[in-house]
Amino acid sequence: MQSYKELLAANQVWVAEKLKVDPGYFKNIAKEQRPECLWIGCSDSRVPAETITGARPGELFVHRNIANLVVHTDFNLLSVLQFAVEYLEVREIIVCGHYGCTGVQAALTNRRFGLLNQWLRSIKDVYRLHREELQAIPDPIAQARRMVELNVLEQVHNLARTSIVQRAWHLHRRPQLHAWVYGLDTGLLRDILTLDPDAKLDDVFTFNFRDDSNL
Ligand code: CO
Hints:
Layout: H1 4-21, H2 25-31, E1 37-42, H3 49-53, E2 60-65, H4 75-87, E3 92-98, H5 102-107, H6 116-129, H7 131-135, H8 140-160, H9 163-172, E4 176-182, E5 189-195
Parallel strand pairs: 1-2, 1-3, 3-4
Antiparallel strand pairs: 4-5
This protein binds cobalt (II) ion.
């Protein structure tokens, strides 16, 4: 593991390397950001968004939390989402989970983790919604992997259920939503669902924009 001093030293090397190739690199980057993609991923140190996708500074707008959750009362996530959709005008939102997610695994137990139990609570809802399918999987590793996939799918649907995404779908036909799962032991990303702006949602969660002047 790198100490904080090594991290600072590595930063100096990185800056020198960038400036050697392009003396104006940081001056250009500082002008503005126009990322086309919002990334919502797990805080896990082994799933760094830019590293695993080869993205450069300025290409991904990133929000990470434990177990890549989209919670409809989380003002941190909702502020990131609104800024990305309405001001940065991103065309894609990726929710990326990962196999071996300790947040998901913790939510499958009955252990007490203090405050964390409140955060992990919405993962228990995912388990409750898919209990039949999950309990039919005898292998606990396979069950945990499926739970990771179901969690990502649920979080993408949670995104689609926000008024922020539905308003942008109605007005601008964007963004497209994606559910991805990353394999810690393979380094590979799996694309498991895409939701287009014309996706049909459950009526319960569909906002009416037709006769609404208050857009
Ligand atoms: Co995780």
